[in-house]
Each structure stands twice: as C-alpha cells, then as structure tokens.
Design brief:
Blueprint lengths: L1 H8 L5 H11 L4 H9 L7 H20 L7 H22 L1
Helix pairs in contact: 2-5, 3-5, 4-5
Length: 95
C-alpha cells in the first residue's frame, strides 16, 4: 500500500482541477459515488478501488494532455474526487 500512497503523492495535476477535486471530496459518499465510476455491484476495498481509479485517472490525463476529443473535464474531476477520498480512507485504515 505504501507504493500506492507514494504514487498518489507524486501525482501532479493543474491547480484548479485539484482544488475543485478537494472541495468535491468533502461531500464524497463512497456508496453513492464509487458505483457510478467503477460499475455497480460489490464495492472493492479501498486499495483495489484506488488502483482502478488511478488507472482511470491516468487514461483521462493522457486524453487531457493529447487534446483528445473524448476528454471530459467533469469526469476527470469526478475521478480525482474519488481518488482523494479513497486515499484518505486508506490512510485512515492504515493508521
């Protein structure tokens, strides 16, 4: 899990995008938001969910930097909100 947390620490995105994600993370509810992003069914543990979210975020970042027509800033911020919140929950469970 430490590698996952160090990957998150090295994540650098535009300041405005991260600010919006931090504000959105205050109202994050795992049971409501995570199924919308990962699909419905049994919710994975924090570490597994975070890995899937990081993969999704990497793809969105690639779309953003290459100016892909399918890129959605709303979806990117949604995924970042979930990443921030799941990371907080993971850190809390490790402490």
């Amino acid at each position: 899990m430490q590698d996952l947390l160090s990957m998150l620490h090295a994540l650098h995105r535009p300041r405005l995008m991260m600010r919006a994600a931090r504000i959105g993370a205050e109202d994050y509810r795992r049971t409501a938001h995570l199924p919308r992003l990962l699909g419905y069914g049994v919710l994975p543990r924090h570490g597994a969910a975070l890995m899937k979210l990081m993969e999704m975020e990497a793809e969105l970042e690639h779309q953003r930097t290459t100016s892909d027509a399918n890129y959605s800033v709303i979806r990117h911020v949604d995924v970042l909100i979930a990443v921030i919140s799941e990371a907080r929950d993971l850190r809390a469970s490790l402490a």
